Amino acid sequence: ATAQMVRPASAGRLVLPNSCALQAGLTDEVALIGAGNHFKIWEPAAGLANTEAVLQRARDKALTMPGRSVP
């Protein structure tokens, strides 16, 4: 994984460096997944698989936030 700081373009868009897009296998569609004070850009199927794995680990460890349950 590669983290890289980028600044929004004049229209407020983020332009992802080609090297990052190639490394992550990104094409026409991406998934933006919140992670605390930042977000991660994933290839959609990989992002879904990662999210499901994270939720399963939380269920396995019975981890929940106060007043919430893990779906």
- First-residue to last-residue Cα separation: 27 Å
Mean pLDDT: 84
Radius of gyration: 15 Å
Strand runs, count: 2
Return residue spans where pLDDT drops below 50 for at least 5 consecutive residues.
none
Strand content: 5-15%
Strand order of the largest sheet: 1-2
How many strands, what sense, and barrel or not for the largest sheet?
2 strands, antiparallel
Task: Assign a percent range to the helix content.
Answer: 25-40%
The outline comes out as elongated
| Assembly state (oligomeric) | single chain
Structural class given helices, strands, pairing?
alpha+beta
Provide a concise account of the structure shown:
With 71 residues, this protein is an alpha+beta fold. The chain has helices spanning 18-24, 44-60; strands at 31-35, 38-42.
What does this structure look like?
This protein is an alpha+beta fold. The protein has 2 helices and 2 strands; from the N terminus they run αββα. It has a two-stranded antiparallel ribbon. It is elongated. The two termini are 27 Å apart. The model has no long low-confidence stretch (mean pLDDT 84).
